[in-house]
Structure prediction request, 517 residues.
Amino acid sequence: MNFTEKQLKQIHDKGLTLDKVQSQVNLFKKGLPFVNLKSAATIGNGILSINDNERKDLIENYDNKRDDISILKFVPASGAATRMFKFLFKFFEDFRPKEESLNSYINRKKASEMSIFFVGINKLPFYYIVKQQLHKLNKNFGKLSLNEQLYLFVEMMMAKDKLNYGNYPKGLIPFHQYRDHIATAFEEHLFEAAIYASSNGKADLHFTISEKHKNIFDEEFKRIEEIVERKTNTAFDISFSYQKESTDTIALTTDNKPYIEEDGSLLFRPSGHGALIENLNDLDADVIFIKNIDNVVVFKYEQEVADSKKMLAGKLLKVQEQAFTYLRALEADVNEEKLMVIAQFMSNELNLVISTEFEKYSKKYQKEYLFEKLNRPIRVCGMVKNEGEPGGGPFWVKDESANISLQIVESAQIDKKNKHQKNILKNATHFNPVDLVCGVKDYKGNKFDLTKYVDHKTAFITMKTKVGKDIKALELPGLWNGSMANWNTIFVEVPLVTFNPVKTVNDLLKAHHQVGS
Prediction:
């Protein structure tokens, strides 16, 4: 493929190589395979159900060790809140308060979300902020019709020259209304981290954000730092990073040619949260918790959530300690009996499917085989019972070489035209809430290079538009999907209280986001 001098410079300036761009183009042309599901992971078949006594022991195991290890909480937080307010944008554009009633609009548009929004409006955490602004700007606000008041309420929230919530980072939108203050998701992550992700009175948190939002995150931390540190008796070290330009992917036209901008430059797009494996790879800690920015709860539920996180971390430390012992043994001279014990541990505790040919291997190759499979990053992932939420879930997957492994799979990766695959998806019992605890160091304390454990074939091709034209975009393997495909994986059932994402503004009306509920 021939690129102009300007385009070659653009590729170089992004930190990309010509080979990398060409391989992206080839992926578009060849297409990407669907994942081949073998079965859904269920309790007793890939997902652990932990009883109360074991849960207590795992929490204790973590609490006893946490002051002797480095801990980090990693929070992907780059998204703006646009999708959260999608139906309000529509209302703001379409509703004419002097021409029709609110009920008429809701019936005409079948806008049930608007109905829920207005019924619960005074329970929203930003209700008084918006009302205060409305009364400040319009002295006669109280005399207006209900239709006009509600329209102006939404306008105050959404208009770019007003509160502009739709273009704000989701992490800094008011989420929870307490008696004496309003908390953002960013603030709740700090309170939560103090309970389960702190060590020696200090909590390290890393947020991946959009570069344009760095200043307002800094300002928010300055505003709340003293209060949160006093209330939690914890010092916070907050760091930020941005999705690297070198992880952007080239966009193509529908006939697989690079999309050229009017100025002759190539169109590159951010490649989804899978790019964040690079950001995660830059961090250094013994235990890393991963949780999305919008998945938080009000204070009264935080201890229950924290106990679940500590249980997962206790499980990680317990399994990792045994794995490290076995890795050291494999470095020395082990007998055949010990090799079988190690293989059994890998199968039972790490869900690794050992080759049926294993017993036929020479002892030297058995050692190498076990060592290579065991010496990998480990992730312990919480899974919640499926409540019909869209998104990924835990499955047993068979790759092109017939290797079987536990994976988190997005529904977009599954061929729903294949009846067998569709049935496996339909029978899934659990859902991925993005609740991970990761061990990213080897038995010698060295960090793994996480980029070596990515399955590049699990990328996505999606259709987007650019100035009204259809374009093809490439998303890298998801951070907790294909980017961690070759990690050792443990799935554990966790309670539903741990999964409370705010996908739309109406989710803030649910019990775990309401102080009085």
Q: What stands out?
A: DSSP finds 15 helices and 21 strands in the chain. The longest helix spans residues 302-331.
